[in-house]
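hey so i finaly got around to running the thing on Methionyl-tRNA formyltransferase from Paraburkholderia ginsengisoli. pasting the sequence first so u can double check i didnt mess up the copy paste, my clipboard has been acting weird all day
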Amino acid sequence: MSHSLRVIFAGTPEFAAAALAAIHRAGFPVPLVLTQPDRPAGRGMKLQASPVKRFAQEHGLDVAQPPSLRRAGRFPAEAAAAIEQLRATPHDVMVVAAYGLILPQEVLDIAPLGCINIHASLLPRWRGAAPIHRAIEAGDAETGITLMQMDVGLDTGAMISEARTPISSDDTTATLHDRLAQDGARLIVDALIELERNGKLASTPQPADGVTYAEKIGKQEAALDWRRPAAVLARQVRAFDPFPGGVGTLEDGSSVKIWAAVPVEAQGDNAPGTITEVSADGVIVACGEAALRLTQLQKPGGKRLPVREFLAGSTLAAGQRFQLPEAK
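ok and heres what it spat out for the 3d tokens, dont ask me to read them lol
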């Protein structure tokens, strides 16, 4: 199947690569792909291409990697050149998914049929950088994908369509991300087919109430505050898989990454952060409310291990205590 609607695509991580792959597979011409500059990553901190760039290169699509699209920003010459390239590339619509650069009004105005954004939440809840993590962390029962017409606000544009998915009690950011990436890929292809057929897409303004912001995840959030309820910490652990993970630091200063945990009833009246039981079924830690059973752990420089294997090479014991981070 081939289509005539020409799509410029802007995106960076795996979430965006899934959408680009679907657009390409559906037969839409993609004359240009925008993605973030290569970044140092991994142990050797070598420059690495984004998942979107890798897909584009494997499929012979042209790629541009401006550090900015804002003429008034730190890279005015590069921004001007990129805007010129967008203007000089014949296209009909621009699709943006987790691109990571601010698009000023003059960029939004270039595509004749506008810019469509694939956003990983049910807007207006969780506008901003980390909607998947924050939905899990907050205990939301469901989330989804919203396609919206982009404007200059932060995820404020009119909504075109949505797909909903329940958040299960064992979803992590990794599992939910993969489901939402597939939903986003499906929704955008459907929207592009309709746009090609009708020349426009119906959209609805976002409701004014229910707006929340999903702040970017900071490494400093990894430290678990055992004074909080176990149910809240369990959600935090799921939200922080695969990044940055939950971290507990013992009173001797050694740290443990916590990758899986479930709330359980507390045994006795122990201070938050106290390890109350260590067995092949889990390491139980007292919390501000109830207790947390840790079932997948990792030593610095080690691998993620089920608790049974972790304990074979560890000296965790009942009575030890995790430090309480400084209250924010």
